[in-house]
Design a protein that fits this description.
By secondary structure, the chain is of the alpha+beta class. It contains six helices and three strands. Strand 2 and strand 3 form a beta hairpin. The radius of gyration is 17 Å and the shape is elongated.
């Protein structure tokens, strides 16, 4: 298991805890998007979407760059691997605990 600082893992799980940010990440998994494109499904302002993107950036999940007047966002998958590795450590526990008894 990869050792990850508690602060980094906290930032990753904090970013993933919000359903709006999870939808944004899902969209970014399909390709780069502007902040306006990320905001569109929610009818939210650019400012509100930008705040969500900043949380994703702090967790390392998104990289944002300026292109002309737009900000282009790209998914950074490495922190998702870290979160997956942390969760996978417990997989054996829940696989063993949730087996249905045939008694």
């Amino acid at each position: 298991m990869v050792v990850q600082s508690s602060a980094s893992l906290d930032a990753i799980f904090h970013a993933l805890s919000d359903p709006t940010r999870r939808v944004m990440l899902r969209s970014l998994a399909l390709g780069e998007r502007t902040i306006g494109e990320l905001a569109a499904p929610f009818s939210m302002s650019f400012a509100a979407a930008s705040k969500h993107v900043r949380v994703l950036e702090r967790a390392g999940l998104v990289n944002r760059r300026k292109m002309g007047r737009s900000y282009i966002c790209r998914l950074e998958p490495a922190p998702l691997r870290v979160a997956d590795q942390w969760i996978s450590f417990y997989e054996g526990f829940w696989d063993g605990r949730f087996l249905v008894s045939s008694d």
